[in-house]
Amino acid sequence: xxxxxxxxxxxxxxxxxxxxxxxxxxxxxxxxxxxxxxxxxxxxxxxxxxxxxxxxxxxxxxxxxxxxxxxxxxxxxxxxxxxxxxxxxxxxxxxxxxxxxxxxxxxxxxxxxxxxxxxxxxxxxxxxxxxxxxxxxxxxxxxxxxxxxxxxxxxxxxxxxxxxxxxxxxxxxxxxxxxxxxxxxxxxxxxxxxxxxxxxxxxxxxxxxxxxxxxxxxxxxxxxxxxxxxxxxxxxxxxxxxxxxxxxx
Length: 249
Ligand SMILES: Cc1ncc(C[n+]2csc(CCOP(=O)(O)OP(=O)(O)O)c2C)c(N)n1
Ligand code: SF4
Prior knowledge:
Blueprint: H1 20-33, E1 41-45, E2 60-63, H2 69-79, E3 84-90, H3 91-97, H4 101-108, E4 113-118, H5 153-160, E5 164-169, H6 173-185, E6 190-195, H7 206-212, E7 214-216, H8 226-234, E8 238-245
Parallel strand pairs: 1-2, 1-3, 3-4, 4-6, 5-6, 7-8
Antiparallel strand pairs: 5-8
């Protein structure tokens, strides 16, 4: 099986240069590495540009309801445990309307991989501020809310008790492929924070800026140590790599 075999015939409607293309590629690569057959795969998303990804992967896919992908995916996984279940969505979908579902999905520890494609903005609805919009983001039309302090997705899931937490960048394909592969292999709730660019509503060079503001998780980091993981997550820059993986009994 090749990654292209996991693509539907639909052409993505994303803007040329959108970071979501990288995530589609990284995800189909990771699934191919793990030899996940389309009939054993479910991709569940909410609503947003990033959530369109579900329609582009050959799988039982559901581009569902804004903010509600996690409970839908949990129900699916509980009734069909043999399905590899991947949840995708944006920062608006996950951390605004969908935020209340995250700690409970973490507590239930259902075997899901949740990849949030974080472009720091509501792309689909034309560029409003999201909970991860930085305060210094240029104010444009519809940017109400950008004066609020951004939340940190990695600290949020770590403090909720998530057993697998990783971060990658949509333009860093081999790394993203590896992080998604490890997350899918983890037998519980796995969270992957994917830094992604929106070329239409974020300023020029935004995605490169994210990368410049990132650093690889140091080799000395022990991902089984929660204190070390929390300290790494507190760094104002973005640590890219496996941040935390709780050993399982
Ligand atoms: C219940 C509900 N409220 C609001 C909306 C409008 N809406 C659609 S997508 C979206 C935000 C999308 O932003 P994000 O999740 O960050 O995804 P992106 O488009 O940036 O990938 C909003 C507010 C909706 N579809 N349904
Ligand atoms: S508006 Fe932004 S997030 Fe949406 S497809 Fe275009 S570049 Fe991607």
